[in-house]
Amino acid sequence: MCFKKWFTDPVAPVEIEPVFRRLLSFTINDYAGSVNDLNGCHNDGRQLKEVLLNYWPDFDVRRFMDHHATIETFKLDVAASINVLSPGATVLILPDSCFSGTVTRLLNPERQYFPTKNRFYQQPGVKMYPHLKSGTFASRGDINWICISGCGETQYSADAYIDGEYHGAFSYYACKTLKPDMTYREWFNEIRRYLPSSEFEQAPTLEGPDRLLDQIVFSTQTLTIHNSTHGTQLPGINGDEPIDEAICFYNGNLRDNDYNLLLQAIK
After folding, report:
1. Residues 48 and 226: beta-carbon distance below 8 Å
2. pTM of the predicted structure, to 2 decimals
3. What's the topology of domain 21-162+172-245?
């Protein structure tokens, strides 16, 4: 990703105290120097914070917006937060960006006034995979976390005008449907009541082992990692697949391989 303006904050080692519930939220509306700005990402982070604190007031919430949402900040804060988790803790990934279905793995009648944008950054020279309408569910024993994604790995996530302001469709309905005493699997099923729809084709996906999916939400020590950003596809570099999915941070792209590597530290 090329930007005319670069903003870099000094990056220092992160020291984070252990807590029972923590949210790391990375949202970017302003992709400086480009024409790829979004509208609803900060609203997503605010809405998620409000919902979580309403039900679980002890949540430690850390939000990183625009130029603070860099690859380096993401890696350092995620690594530090995982490092202080106790063995058996839950890590929940909530990616709201295009092609997010495997990112952790090796409108209304007045739409003309409030256009929906896809949270996708087109890389020059990269061939797109066909756009699919179906979502997936997978109970996977080979990962040690839960991922509820905004769409499938070949789908777009919408940045849309909903209920009087811009939101990511996935983040909005994830917040709308979340209730205490439901399991993560039940939460996902509630989200799927709204997505896909006649307005939004994206179909959220769910991955994780049964032992985590059937837990009551946030009933154990939990780290939640949320991003509301652009997503993109890049030529594969490790030979495992021809195309890598990636999250577009303020200063570049985080590949699915690198995200997976961070999560391998989960105890």
Report:
1. yes
2. 0.84
3. Rossmann fold (3.40.50)
